């Protein structure tokens, strides 16, 4: 039988919880209503108790070590559970509010057309629907569930793939006349999504084009901005299939290498929309009900708007 580990004082873990979320002694101190010096002293005591280094100086702030990153996952989950438990006994009859953050593209094309059905799942709860492209900390931003674009590789949340988001290489019709082969793509600016620096390298590798550094490429923070920039001829963009087909039909964009040139890419290199939450959030029956509903929908075969 494994010996029980002696836990450090809860107050030290509370300070660590604040520092790991803010990545700042000053901001953690403001939250805890103490001085930055007090926070620093508490962190040193925790490091001595655990026998590991948790934070290092990095640039203008502090950086979590590997030990701190590992510990933060469990400590954050623990404090989330405390919040849920205390809320249940203090406000047992208070109307439940569920905050669902949805990627703008997924929300517009897939969720909103089914919002009536979706609302029936938890008729006794208030659902707050938001749209933030990049969620850094679900607890800090008070989000219960989210549908986020990416590769499902976040370690601090529970992820479930809802729908793949294959891309079509698109450009302005005038630009398409100068693209006859995959190598010709490198003659133009490749528009990058902010939340994925690997998408173009994966695509170029799949097409057999020797990858190059894309640090100087124009980076865009959401799918709609990518679409508009591509229509304006600012570079070659990666557009989701539904919008690419519409714009090609209307003559706004062209797919110089064909709409299905990326159809055979390995699944792990294709981004998608992932349902994310935390284990602590799933302990709420209302959040768990919404999570099950979103997870069980056959989004691949739902006619999008």
TrEMBL record:
Keywords carried by this UniProt record: DNA-binding, Transcription, Transcription regulation
Pfam family, one: LysR_substrate
Family, per entry: Belongs to the LysR transcriptional regulatory family.
DNA-binding as UniProt keyword: yes
Top-level taxon of the source organism: Bacteria
Keyword Transcription tagged: yes
Originating species: Fuscibacter oryzae
Chain segments annotated as transmembrane: none
Protein name: LysR family transcriptional regulator
MF (Gene Ontology): DNA-binding transcription factor activity; sequence-specific DNA binding
Record-annotated HTH lysR-type domain positions: 8-65
GO biological process: DNA-templated transcription
